[in-house]
């Protein structure tokens, strides 16, 4: 796969992360040139989805084989594929599992169907190479195995996974994968359950929904999941979500009724209307976007959004401690370039080492920090880990290009990757390493803090 196939969705993210002047020998801005080459109409305003139909994972009457299959339609591209896999029935497998990446027809689509050793859930991962982008999505399916009973002949009985045949997944190179990754890492507790219980009781007595803000929300993957989890069933906790981002580039075109998407730069003071409005403020994956000097400013803004007793929930990564499987020098180079880029642009690759102090420093009363080492992350199901690798490396590619274009000649000569040609070579080589099993993981930390009552 050529590197441009992975690059576009992240270039726009990287472009936001700094405003250093472009210094390219050719006189052209390579970032702009690449963006122009890879852009396609509608990409920036609608969130890609995969529509799955005719999904089944089951045995079959009088058969010693078990099967999984489905049709997938990629929107807005409209391309379709048929994916299937079969294997012999055995005692360990009521339904089949197959490694990511099992090719579909056409082979521009691929999938994996694996069992999570801890939760026992099945994880379906789907990827499409559109020729311009690599779209990936993953979803957990509850391990609900049922038996089809053939009354006429017990040999005709077979087991199947009880799951809807038709469903839609958000497909996004970077964010959807990371959301599923966080879901697994946090054992499905993507919002703190103790906080939620307290807030639900308070909201009930005040006869109103719980008010939640997501800052730097991107596609709103987290908020969309919260909205689905807490309002889909009658009698469930009622939530109202506001997703803020500096750009509307990734906002979904038709969000659910209880989510509003709004433009706001977290570096700017919140309006009076926003202040004290929220019970829970969520922030995630902002390390590459917030200069060190802005961390206390942004934390103060988060604090001012919260009502007394409200919670801040910030998850971020530590790019400064990459863990790349040994003997993969190009993937290693990508990982280190990410760190180099953060430093050059005034960000803190070790932010999570210091974030608890920053949070206490602006006056939050209690702070609970949870750190997930790369050892823990590497024990996640392979498809989830793979998603992290796929996500991180393109992210690094994007910053790598931006880094090259922004360095002055002296810094450039000292940089790990010095020109676009070298970058393309490293990227292509890293792609190969990843296909051959290289992984690139970084630690994750979560901070839950509470404002005084
Ligand atoms: C890596 S994405 C994370 C998205 C989301 N939090 C998630 O975890 O799925 C970072 C997001 O922060 C947004 N962002 C960057 N700087 C920002 C700022 N100053 N104010 C608000 N949003 C910002 C970017 O536009 C991008 O959507």
UniProtKB/TrEMBL annotation:
Phylogenetic classification of the source organism: Eukaryota, Fungi, Dikarya, Ascomycota, Pezizomycotina
Gene3D superfamilies per record: Vaccinia Virus protein VP39
Superkingdom of the organism of origin: Eukaryota
Protein's UniProt name: Uncharacterized protein
Signal peptide stretch: 1-19
Pfam families listed in its UniProt record: Methyltransf_23
PANTHER family the UniProt entry points to: METHYLTRANSFERASE (PTHR43591), RHODANESE DOMAIN-CONTAINING PROTEIN (PTHR43591:SF110)
Keyword field: Signal
């Amino acid at each position: 796969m050529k590197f441009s196939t992975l690059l576009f969705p992240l270039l726009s993210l990287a472009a936001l992360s700094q405003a250093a002047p472009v210094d390219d020998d050719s006189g052209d801005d390579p970032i702009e040139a690449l963006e122009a080459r890879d852009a396609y109409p509608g990409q920036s305003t609608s969130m890609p989805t995969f529509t799955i139909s005719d999904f089944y994972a089951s045995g079959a009457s009088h058969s010693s084989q078990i099967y999984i299959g489905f049709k997938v339609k990629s929107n807005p591209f409209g391309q379709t594929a048929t994916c299937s896999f079969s294997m012999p029935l055995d005692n360990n497998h009521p339904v089949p599992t197959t490694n990511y990446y099992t090719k579909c027809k056409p082979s521009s689509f691929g999938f994996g169907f694996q069992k999570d050793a801890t939760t026992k859930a099945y994880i379906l991962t789907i990827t499409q190479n559109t020729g311009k982008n690599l779209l990936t999505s993953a979803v957990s399916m509850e391990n609900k195995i049922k038996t089809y009973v053939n009354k006429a002949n017990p040999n005709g009985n077979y087991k199947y996974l009880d799951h809807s045949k038709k469903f839609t997944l958000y497909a996004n190179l970077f964010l959807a994968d990371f959301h599923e990754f966080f879901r697994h890492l946090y054992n499905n507790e993507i919002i703190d359950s103790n906080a939620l219980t307290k807030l639900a009781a308070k909201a009930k007595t005040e006869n109103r929904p719980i008010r939640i803000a997501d800052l730097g929300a991107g596609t709103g993957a987290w908020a969309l999941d919260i909205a689905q989890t807490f309002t889909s069933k009658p009698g469930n906790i009622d939530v109202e979500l506001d997703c803020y981002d500096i750009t509307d580039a990734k906002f979904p075109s038709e969000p659910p009724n209880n989510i509003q998407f709004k433009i706001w730069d977290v570096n700017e003071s919140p309006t009076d209307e926003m202040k004290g409005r929220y019970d829970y403020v969520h922030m995630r994956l902002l390390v590459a976007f917030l200069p060190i000097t802005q961390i206390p400013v942004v934390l103060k803004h988060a604090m001012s959004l919260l009502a007394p007793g409200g919670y801040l929930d910030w998850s971020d990564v530590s790019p400064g401690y990459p863990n790349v499987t040994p003997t993969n020098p190009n993937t290693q180079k990508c990982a280190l370039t990410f760190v180099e880029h953060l430093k050059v642009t005034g960000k803190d690759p070790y932010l999570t080492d210091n974030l608890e102090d920053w949070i206490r420093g602006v006056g939050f009363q209690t702070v609970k920090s949870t750190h997930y080492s790369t050892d823990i992350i590497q024990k996640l199901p392979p498809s989830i880990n793979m998603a992290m690798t796929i996500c991180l490396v393109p992210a690094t590619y994007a910053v790598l290009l931006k880094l090259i274009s922004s360095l002055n000649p002296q810094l450039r000569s000292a940089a790990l990757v010095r020109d676009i040609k070298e970058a393309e070579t490293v990227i292509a080589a890293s792609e190969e390493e990843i296909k051959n099993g290289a992984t690139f993981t970084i630690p994750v930390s979560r901070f839950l803090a509470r404002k005084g009552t």
